[in-house]
Amino acid sequence: VKKLLTFLTCLYFLPQVCGCIILGFSIWIRVTSAQQVNACSHTSTIMLAGVNLLIAVGAIIMILGFLGCCGAVKESRCMLMLFFIALLLILILQVTGGILGAVYKPQVEKAFNLTLNEGVNALQSTTGEYEEYQKEFQKLQKEFQCCGWQNGPGDWGENFDKQKDICLCEPEKQSSDLCTYYKNRYVYKKSCGEVIIQKIKDNLVIMMGIAFGLAAVEILGLVFSMTLYCQIGRK
């Protein structure tokens, strides 16, 4: 039992490390995404809600790791059972979330495209109602080096001719693949919708790797916590 206790104490430290990684990564995304809320409110709100959930998950996993360590060191069957139940619930939620994500993927894509269409209408507006939105979106274009939501400079409509700095790209300072010539000036070639989707896909790959690694640690934690729980009961 003592050898198992030592092993589990080390094992339960892994969820705390994973929790710290998830928490730190989520806070970083939260901070860097906050400035883009005004530019794409609907999309950013959905993304930030997911990031906030990850922050909560990271904090909970850290607490669970501490609970498992204490239960193993003190040989507390109550703490080990609480750890087992909580970890099992998190694992079930992870699997459920993955299934729901796969099932509702078409609806999410449809909602995202609808958001892009609304964004294009706001960019083409000349009434002044979306003036603040347009200013924030221009900041986003400079940061991501993109133009428009879907169809590049065409998404700006008449506003493109009124403002000479919209989507402005200086080819002598940039890569030749980054700029394109449109209406007597160089503009960014890629649309912001395309760039944002690519960034989301890149982040999803990272998060899927973290999720699979975390699931493996959680399964080990479940197996060994129940093993230790039974060993303590036989003493």
Q: Can you put this structure into words, describing what you see?
A:
This protein has 235 residues and is mainly alpha-helical. It has one domain. It contains 8 helices and 2 strands. It has helices at 2-11, 13-34, 41-74, 77-103, 105-124, 131-144, 159-162, 192-234; strands spanning 179-182, 185-188. Strands 1-2 form a two-stranded antiparallel ribbon. The chain is elongated, with a radius of gyration of 24 Å. It starts with a helix and ends with a helix. Pfam families: Tetraspanin. Belongs to the tetraspanin (TM4SF) family.
Question: What order do the helices and strands come in, and which of them pair?
Answer:
Elements: H1 2-11, H2 13-34, H3 41-74, H4 77-103, H5 105-124, H6 131-144, H7 159-162, E1 179-182, E2 185-188, H8 192-234
Antiparallel strand pairs: 1-2
